[in-house]
Amino acid sequence: MSPSQKESLFDHYRKSLAAADLKTTHQDSLICPLCWQETRFDDLSLEHIMPGSVGGKRCILTCTQCNNEHGSSFDSHLAQFQKLRDGFKGHGTIPAKLKVLGKEVVANVEWGDGYKNINIVGKASNPAEVSAMQDDAKAGNVGELNLTLLYGYNKNNFQTGLLRCAYLAVFKCFGYEYANHEVVQVIRRRICDSTLEHPRLESLIGELRDGSLPYRDSYVIVPGNVNGVEFFLVILLLRKETVTNQFVYMPVPVARCDEFCDMMERSSKDNDGKKLTIPHELVFT
Ligand SMILES: [Zn+2]
């Protein structure tokens, strides 16, 4: 019988632990790449690197607790972000609140090219407000429309979710020798505690806006270099009806923590609006 995906990943990362000279008390344990706690085989579970809800397929092993807690904290924010992007590109609707002449109802907005349709969601609205609004319309009392789009995701959770995907992608590729490095541990601790202010996520994360990339995978890792400081550019493709390309800068293990963070702070200020050139031939997946 061929080993399960869980067993093959376990064997692979047991070797990676040994290569990084990390010890565990038990032979049937790994260190969870997120919380960094020793975890026995039975408490490990398969976790998507990119959430399945945005097209992710590849998996890694984490402890069950990180899998459950992080999954619900971050995955839904990535999915909601992409659903909203789909909505702005004419796929599906965007939830909103509509206020007219002091009445408020729940609505869905179709964001078409050159038109916007606002549909009142009767089931989710107060029936009295809906009928009062209809009466106003019939009587010709059309006041100012006040439409609030409900984005439904939280920026900190969204960005922490992206950082988590990027970290797990690079961990999948380079294992414990990579993750055990102090500069990478700084990133790992930030994922597990989203109240930490360091490193500042705005300096590490952004969006590639220039069109479609030639990748079928849900992420790719590209090595880069700015003024002698090396990094990995992890490109994350969020896929629903449409695709959004996010990127995360991750340190390479030779970088010093302060150098990496300083460089990213500087380059995030310098590079606003500049074109980023990606060497497609050097990509890891
Ligand atoms: Zn864990």
Can you give keywords for this protein?
285 residues; alpha+beta; 4-stranded antiparallel sheet; 6 helices; 27% strand; elongated; binds zinc ion
Tell me about this structure.
Helices cover 36% and strands 27% of the residues. The protein is of the alpha+beta class. It has one domain (5-79, 154-282). The strands form 4 sheets. Strands 7-6-5-8 form a 4-stranded antiparallel β-sheet. A 4-stranded antiparallel β-sheet has the order 9-12-11-10. The two termini are 28 Å apart. 30% of the residues are buried. The mean pLDDT is 88. It binds zinc ion.
**What are the segments in which pLDDT stays under 50 over at least 5 consecutive residues?**
none
Helix fraction by DSSP (H/I, runs of at least 4): 25-40%
Order of helices and strands: HEEEEHEEEHEHHEEEEH
Number of domains: 1
Distance between the termini: 28 Å
Radius of gyration: 23 Å
Adjacency order of strands in the biggest sheet? 7-6-5-8
Major sheet details: 4 strands, antiparallel
